[in-house]
Amino acid sequence: MPIYEYECKACGHRLEKLQKVSAAALTDCPRCERAELSRLVSAAGFRLAGGGWYETDFKSGQKRNLAGEASAPSTSTETGGKTPA
């Protein structure tokens, strides 16, 4: 079951609700009790990584984004003033 995000247009309260795909969207805000809730569009909480149809079948040429292929190695030297162990 997906988790849906809602926001009340009246008071700004935000909440998440685990619901079936076939369930009706919530309308009443639990904080102010007005019928002003609207469902938000949000990004998925996971990323498919590794080889598979979702990484290889829908990309053209050499465009791939596999988990083992890091873009550029980080060159950050921030260690809080301490030498890394």
TrEMBL record:
<dbReference type="InterPro" id="IPR013429">
    <property type="entry name" value="Regulatory_FmdB_Zinc_ribbon"/>
</dbReference>
<feature type="region of interest" description="Disordered">
    <location>
        <begin position="64"/>
        <end position="85"/>
    </location>
</feature>
<dbReference type="Pfam" id="PF09723">
    <property type="entry name" value="Zn_ribbon_8"/>
</dbReference>
<feature type="domain" description="Putative regulatory protein FmdB zinc ribbon">
    <location>
        <begin position="1"/>
        <end position="42"/>
    </location>
</feature>
<protein>
    <submittedName>
        <fullName>Zinc ribbon domain-containing protein</fullName>
    </submittedName>
</protein>
<feature type="compositionally biased region" description="Polar residues">
    <location>
        <begin position="72"/>
        <end position="85"/>
    </location>
</feature>
